[in-house]
Amino acid sequence: MTTTPVRFLFLWEQPTDPEAFEKHYREVHIPLARKLPGLRSYAITDDPQPVRGEPYYRIAELRWDSMDELRTAFASPAGQACAEDATGMAQNAAARSMILGAQEELL
User: Fold this and answer.
1) 1, 13, 42, 66: which could form a disulfide with 94 (CB 3.0–4.6 Å)?
2) pLDDT tens figures, 54-73
């Protein structure tokens, strides 16, 4: 059976209180996310440079080996805790998220 790796992207806008956001993100949110079952990698990019539109404050990229593993992770108690925490953090910094699955190589 072939599986397709998936990426979960979380794009954070500028926080209203950057100091509080950073403290919570690093002391609470990252430790919660590290407990997600099957998580292969977790990377953050601060101050990404936009080509068009407004910049994001931070982009987080989490990877799993398959969509089933991602679904299992967020259905778990750790996943629910992480999602609840992100919802609470959105009061300080609006966010968007998306899942990227299979890629088509064009070059």
Assistant:
1) 13
2) 889 999 999 999 999 999 99
**Rounded-to-integer distance, Cα 92 and Cα 89, Å:** 6
CA dist list (Å): 94 to 11, 40, 66: 9, 26, 27
CA distance 15 to 53: 17
Q: DSSP strand E in 15-70: where? A: 41-46, 58-64
SS3 78: helix
- For the question of whether the overall pTM of this predicted structure is more than 0.85, the answer is yes
**pLDDT over 70 percentage in the chain:** 93
Q: Length of the chain, please?
A: 107
Q: What is the DSSP letter of 91?
A: T
Domains of the chain listed by start with CATH number: 6-100 (3.30.70.100)
